[in-house]
Design goal:
Blueprint lengths: L1 E7 L2 E9 L3 E5 L10 H7 L4 E5 L18 H15 L4 E6 L1 H12 L4 E7 L10 H18 L1 H12 L13 H26 L5 H4 L4 E6 L6 H12 L5 E3 L5 H4 L1 H12 L2
Parallel strand pairs: 3-4, 3-5, 5-6, 6-7, 7-8
Antiparallel strand pairs: 1-2, 2-4
């Protein structure tokens, strides 16, 4: 594995590169960082040059200016610069959760740079019939954050979405997992204070995305949940059908080899 730092407007991005072959950029969401995609990247490294990274303001990707509200478009520009730094050819993109919203914006604005996108469970809750419920949840979580801190706010969001935050790292876990969980906990502040409100209001550009090389995907174990419903809504907005991948919202981490095989099948279509 090679690591590096890429200077972008307002930040320095930490990234990791594994394998050889066509470029595959992985974009994660929430408070996750590159380590969360490491098992998937290893599983795919025999087929692709896999680039994983910490998004701006997360752990090893510091801002170079004062913090402020994060914009989807700014994160999409970061992803574009990583692809451009990797070479002139378009790259594949796998993106999940809020990362999938970033990738949708990237594909809408710069389709020539994306060979194929698999957008896994994008939380485009504005497209749901009960969108007002999710708007209210965002307001309530941010109010709770201001009163009681990040922990209670993240737990409230997790209870509603079914994606509960991890607890304190178990001493029996591998060191790299404990380090990752510690970093993810530190990222909650940025995620809540600067990302949650603007990201939750994002609506994909349907006109720009129709006809582009994209699969909107959901986890088989998430059927009926809000992330499944959101994936179906995005696919419908784009005039297609969502595809099923193994596992749940973090299936790429729980069963990386199985997920990698299914993801490669989608990228190869």
């Amino acid at each position: 594995m090679d690591t590096g730092m890429l200077d972008v407007p307002g930040a320095r991005l930490y990234y990791e590169v594994r394998g050889s072959g066509p470029v595959l950029l992985v974009i994660l969401g929430g408070g996750a960082d590159a380590a969360m995609a490491a098992p998937l990247a290893e599983a795919l490294s025999g087929r692709y040059t896999v680039i994983t990274y910490d998004r701006r303001a997360a752990t090893r990707s510091p801002l170079t200016g004062p913090p402020g509200e994060q914009r989807i478009e700014e994160h999409a520009d970061d992803a574009l610069r990583l692809l451009e730094a990797a070479g002139a050819d378009p790259g594949h993109v796998f993106a999940t959760h809020a990362g999938a919203l970033i990738a949708l914006d990237l594909l809408a604005r710069r389709p020539e740079r994306v060979r194929r996108l698999v957008a896994h469970e994008p939380p485009a809750f504005e497209l749901l019939p009960d969108a007002e419920h999710w708007r209210r949840l965002t307001r309530e979580a941010l109010d709770l954050y201001e009163r009681e801190g990040a922990g209670p706010a993240v737990r409230k969001l997790g209870k509603e979405t079914g994606m509960m935050p991890p607890g304190a790292p178990d001493p029996g876990l591998p060191q790299w997992v404990r380090d990752m969980l510690t970093r993810m906990t530190a990222n909650r502040e940025t995620n809540l204070r600067y990302e949650l409100r603007p990201f939750s209001a994002y609506v994909p550009d349907a006109a720009a995305l129709r006809g582009t090389p994209i699969d909107v995907a959901y986890g088989a174990d998430d059927r009926g949940g809000v992330f499944h419903r959101a994936a179906l809504a995005v696919a419908e907005l784009l005039g297609g059908q969502a595809v099923e991948l193994p596992g749940d919202h973090v299936g790429y981490l729980r069963s990386p080899a199985e997920f990698a095989r299914a993801l490669h099948d989608r990228l190869a279509t």
